[in-house]
Amino acid sequence: MSENKSLLKLRRITKVFSKGTIDEVRALDKINLDVSPEDYVAIIGSNGAGKTTLLNVIAGVFPPENGGKIIVYHKEISGLSEYRRAHYVGRVYQDPHAGTAAKISIEENMAMALLRGQRRGLRVATNKDRRELFRAALSPLGLGLENRLNALVGTLSGGQRQALALVMATLSKPALLLLDEHVATLDPRTAQIVLDLTEMLVQREKMTTIMVTHNMEVALRHGNRLIMMHKGRIVVDMNQAQKADLTINDLIVAFERASGEEFVDDKVLLRPSNVVGTSDL
Amino acid sequence: MLDVAGHVLSFSFYEGLVFGFVAIGVYLTFRVLGFPDLTVDGSFALGAAVAAVLIASGVNPFLATLAALGAGLCAGLATSLLNTKLRIPALLAGILVMVSLYSVNLRVMGGANVSLLRQATIFTLTSQFLGLETRIAYQLVVAGVLAAIVFFILNWFLRTEIGLAVRATGDNEQMVRGFGVNTDMTTILGVSISNGLVALGGAAVAQGQKFADVGMGIGMIVMGLASVIIGEALFRPKGVARLLLAVLGGTFIYRLVISVALRLGMAPGDLKLVTAALVIIALAVPYLQKRIRREWLPPATRW
Known about the structure:
The structure holds 2 protein chains of 2 kinds. Chain A is α/β, with parallel strands linked by helices. Chain A is 34% helix and 21% strand.
């Protein structure tokens, strides 16, 4: 994982919420991360570990604290606002409603996605060629969406919308695909379909992907790298070989060891179940 | 009797077209952008004031009407800048600009009203040009042509890449930003166009009635909402073109109902109360229906 080959470089990314109040939370704590081209990174961690905050900082929803650097393709994007980063970053959210627009049609949603990061002009947004392209992108889903281009997205089920959101996020091939617990709200069967679809798209488009998940099994089965976060830090980072024979139990042990080490000082003072806050910082 | 009916119908049709600009403007903000814009009451009178003053000072009525549209665009620009750049809530931003416009309109007109009696208007110029004598006939022609132009431009614009981004902004702003669109810009664009249309309506109405008055915008927002709601309920439109036509149709029905009510003896002063009641009923019925069916309902939005 040589550094200059990295597609994404994070340097000293810190994010503090409610700064200066008693509710201050250090959601990210001096994160350094290098992601190589075509890496498929699965990030796990408990609630409040900073997983989603990390994706939000990469996507530009809010800036990191001073001194943090986000570099994509040797270009620093830390100062760019969210919409200016869209060219580099595609994203699928946990909520199927978040990645699609309900009151416009499937083809209009696809047209929004097609022009990711490009200048939008006064051409009519959908035309014959584009519809052809949309159909070709939708038919591998096997959901029949390619025959319903005029249907309003609000009429689709949650699973269909999430599959559509995934296709939309990857349609114009951003450098980086961020998946934020994107199957967490789906029923197990639909979740599996969307995960398989993810695998197919990531493989086919050779897209560099970061997937946040709560599900350890998903993290073990998907991706070529596994990262575990705890209290705003990366505590475990395994490559393909290291995670190959891992079981969920191994992962729990690794998690306990990693988080336990973090809390060595606290344990002296508090029972582990009471460990809250950010006193280890 | 038939004569009266014909007159009421054609007059409502004319009013449906000129007030239709206001309704389309309201539709753009409230429905398309999800931006509850109350600038409307002010920008309607602004359009009337600008057009009337320019015409009274000898400017070509068509140019004056175009200038009114421009003034409305500026009013919408002010409201949307307050919202997007200074983060003032949409509702409050609209009220602030609406109130400011009251003073602006008094300044523009140099008083509370401007008369256009014996002045050339877009209507009288056209009647001379076409040789149409009946007032309602040439008013219908002019309003119809204006409405057709607005319809075709909007029907095209809302389907362009930029127009689609404007529509999607009202639907899912987060997603739109995620695809690289500056949603501040799409909001500004949408609210500006909306108020430009409202001012165009004001300019047309002032020329039709041959005077502009500082109070003529009062209640326009409610009238626009009533028209939009009627249009949606009656025509259940799908797609941009049908939606625009439905809003025009809704305005026509609304004006028709009002004309008939006035003929049957409703006091003109009660008009706004009746309109507000109409909107309240239209908004409350779906809620009450769901309550009866014991469906879950979200709490009221307070914007």
